[in-house]
Design a protein that fits this description.
The protein is mainly beta and 330 residues long. The chain has helices at 2-20, 302-329; strands at 38-48, 51-54, 59-65, 70-77, 83-88, 97-104, 107-110, 117-119, 125-126, 129-131, 138-146, 155-165, 169-171, 182-185, 191-195, 205-208, 211-214, 221-231, 238-241, 246-253, 259-261, 266-273, 276-286, 291-295. The protein has a seven-stranded mixed sheet, with no helix packed on it. Strands 1, 2, 5, 8 and 9 form a five-stranded mixed sheet that branches. It has a four-stranded antiparallel sheet with strand order 4-3-6-7, covered by helices on one side.
Amino acid sequence: MAGRARLVRALAVAACLTAVLPFAPPAAAQGSAHTDVHVVAGRVLRPASGELEPVSGLWVVLHRLGSDRAGPLDSMLTGTRGAYEFRYQPFGDERALYFAAASYGGVAYFTPPLADVVRGEPAEIIVYDTTTRDIPITVRGRHVVVSAADPDAMRTVLEVYELSNDTTLTRVSPASTSPPTWRAGLPAAARSPRVSDGDIPPDAVTFQNDEVRVVAPLPPGVKQLAFTYSMPATAFPLSVPLTAAADILEVLVEDPAGAARGASLDETDPVVVDGRRFRRFLAQEVQAGQVAIVDVPRAESSWRSRYVIGIMLLVGSVMFIALAHVFRRT
């Protein structure tokens, strides 16, 4: 997850830098350079009439993201065949990421993190035309992970969606006040929702009116959206409605007495993640409109336990005083 998170942050930074690059010259490399020269040489292509055609005259930017420095290193316009090539020397932080990016239709597209020499297909950047139409976004997988209760009887819920755009267009929202590019329900009792590690950065997701709203562009391919929230003990049994069909629905419950039912869920072998054991429930080809129910034992919060103990001590004290009076009279 750490590597994925670093790359997501890198892409978010690069998207901003790419948008302003034609107006700002590339920053000069700083720090101690390595002796080897790296190369990335590829083409920028876009789908057209069932084929990929080159995109000429488009800015391509070489980016670096490291703990010591982040920013664009170099840039160039693609040639008539959509070709570009950069030669560069890595420097500074050895864990720094390098990648090339191109902005097309206001959306940034990237290569994977670059190795020593990357040529041909691995260095290709595929860009897409954009649309504001409500093109279908398929839920390939939905994963709901319910943690064990904490001392205050709160449980953390992690939800992960695998969203697939199977068209050749990037879904964008025409303005910040327009409908999001994708949305999902959020339990009314959910507290402190926040975006977790995934492919969609936190600033591209909002939580409002019991909804999760993605405002980021959704290009063709699969993107992972992950977010967490806290649920009080009173929220269980928890209803998980499926507002959209899902190829796979998975529910993990970190409680030996917890269970999930409905939505064609069947229990499978438990899984262990980072030493934590989860009961696992799985369903395939789940249709929209179904509801999964997650049930866990009711756990008293620490403050309530302390309150009950305090009441018991108070009652005990009163009974002790009453008994003392009785013994004095006898």
